[in-house]
Amino acid sequence: MRPAIFPLLPDPGCLLLLLVSWLFNPARSEITSLDSGNIDDILNNADVALVNFYADWCRFSQMLHPIFEEASNVIKEEYPDKNQVVFARVDCDQHSDIAQRYRISKYPTLKLFRNGMMMKREYRGQRSVTAIADYIRQQKSNPVREVKDLEEISSLDRSRRSIIGYFEQKDSDNYRTFERVANILHDDCVFLSAFGAISKAERFSGDNVIYKPPGENAPDMVYLGSLTNFDLIYAWTQDKCVPLVREITFENGEELTEEGLPFLILFHMKDDLESLEKFQQEVARQLIGEKGTINFLHADCDKFRHPLLHIQKTPADCPVIAIDSFRHMYVFPDFSDLSVPGKLKQFVLDLHSGKLHREFHHGPDPTDIAPGQPIQDLASSPPESSFQKLAPSEHRYTLLREKDEL
């Protein structure tokens, strides 16, 4: 007769420990791993998606993983619907095609998507659970403020760009398209809406969307296209909300620098709006064709004293126009020449041709010297780039070098 075998019962203390551990350490949420087979489907169906582009060998990526996962846990409790908020990740070594598609130049990069569309501004805030969770809450807040009385429109802050929609009803395709556009561009414009009887006076020909530009006396502009055509109204709104000449600040300097385009900058005193208007007009008149080759910016002379010192200027010299090529800074000779036809454009063309660089190092080009005048090699050293220092920090990212490019 074979002896009976009784299974060993676990120690009661161990069972209690396991139970307590399970109660206080619930199963962690899964971060969705994206690949070429699922990325479009997952992102297109997500109201908001935060995607971590990482590499396993990058120590900054390794440091972010547990923080990103814990932030996902926090947000999942507040937004349990899987399509409301998605936390996802892409292993850029395994999926270099996706990294190239989204122009990843450093690890880790956190990019925000809305209904599959990547937002221009990536997440650059603190790498903490609280900061990331707060960022997502902010992204989930309603981007459109509802107006209860048209008197509110007359008291708008006219230093901001505003888009106002007047709709018969909130539950309509027109408003849903408007809200979708506002979700994407709310960092660039103030979005407001009015409905029903309140908006009736502004709906003489149906639902209506207008743009109020900065400035007390600037005239309103009316959108004349289809209100259900997302591509049309988005393009119109983006054109109004994202100015040709943008202001550079310490908050957006890293973002602008990372675009990789040289800067054409007007340094002006904050209250000198006349010089800014002249600069904007001449950029639009002379340089609209150069939009993809250089960033047109304006900067507060007081805030950006250091770059001015690099070019041997002070706020007392403002307004000053300069180019920062990310190697050197070059000064436009005389602000009063701004309105001379073609003068500003030639300054930019001389940057692209290398003439500004050559002249700073070797004196005037031979073609600019009168016949018979001796050619002198006047070696000089242009000031180094000042705004390059606003680029992403190597203490926070693994920056991809040319040899590392995906």
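Second entry:
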Amino acid sequence: MADSPNCDLKSLSPLQLFERVTEQGEKVRALKAGKAPKDEIDAAVRMLLSLKLSYKTTTGQDYQAGLPPKDLVLINNGTAKEEDEDLVDPWNVQTSNAKGVDYDKLIVRFGSSKIDTDLINRLERAIGQKPHHFLRRGIFFSHRDMDQVLDAYENKKPFYLYTGRGPSSQAMHVGHLIPFMFTKWLQEVFDVPLVIQLTDDEKYLWKDMTIEKAYEYAKENAKDIIACGFDVNKTFIFSDLDYLGTSAGFYRNIVKVQKHVTFNQVKGIFGFTDSDCIGKISFPAIQAAPSFSSSFPQIFNGKENIQCLIPCAIDQDPYFRMTRDVAPRIGQPKPALLHSVFFPALQGAQTKMSASDPNSSIFLTDTPKQIKTKINKHAFSGGRDTIEEHRKYGGNCDVDVSFMYLTFFLEDDDRLEQLKQAYTSGELLTGELKKVLIETMQPLVAAHQERRKQVTDEIVKQFMTPRKLAFEF
């Protein structure tokens, strides 16, 4: 049936079509290698071309070997995506809603817990200060076991922080700062160790780049991370390509995780197919391993029972759902998580930022002029078509990207509320709101650039050298 031109290709899902193209391609290669009759090879090639055409018609994408249409596959047990359902997995974020992803639905789908007022109030009592504006504004909106972390803190039991960065490009954008800004605040208020994983191995496996380039990007991204103000005595930054070869504890945890996750499970969680390279299939265990303190014997003095708290965007949650499932079976505590919303592209919350599109976000290398031009030209507006209509009906802060960006980067709650009221009422025009954002982002990026200039290769080496930190365990 595979090479029958009469089969109903329209009934196949994008993933099924992808697998059919892959199978037919393998058949063509086998026929050629076996020196089959020319008419048989020609028929198989025609079928292959027909399948590729059906694939492109269905997905809008050219078939690429080893790159299944993950944007059309839901990460939750591989079930098909409904028309009105957001797509969220570690590689793709898609929504048709101009307001962005429906996070309440995502909490239900992922099975996490909402960060509610009670939890925020408890955190405030524990740390004795006002919670970060990312918490107050719902930018970090979901959690797993944060109450356990607060129990540990209140009982003077240790825990540590773990976050990471996939170094896919040399220049990071302002959205990449969100987890690091928040993690820095967490580290300061709780005074705990922090490990930061640079998944250069992942980027080599997923992207069209050399292993040397992936490692180079990791070193460059480390400079931007260090420029956020982390304390070298309390923070360890590591490249997977470096650290995996030097830490027996890290590798042992990877192997333990690998033994307890089946191929079918990893396919169901991440949407992998039989055509994915084995590096991708084994990678989730590498991202899981830093969740266990025994991966860092130099920091934790070999102790294995210290809980980990992971601040990250919610698209990374599948890795840690898997980790939390495995942890009890290998005698480790489950990591706790704090999930953030996604940072919107300038063109709107339903579009995706891309390192290959310099206009999709504000990059940390942008000049003040570039920042001004990008915001004025590309920031999606929630304003009306004319000034008269805007004055009469007001703007929509729910879809206005300038207001969304200010929600992330303008720390003054009262000022933000004033802007919201003025824009919603029509008193403040889109151009005026964009001006406020420009005046907020220009000094923020300039200050980051100045701090980054001070980060030498020697400082990077200090952060990335396995060592004891300023804590006793």
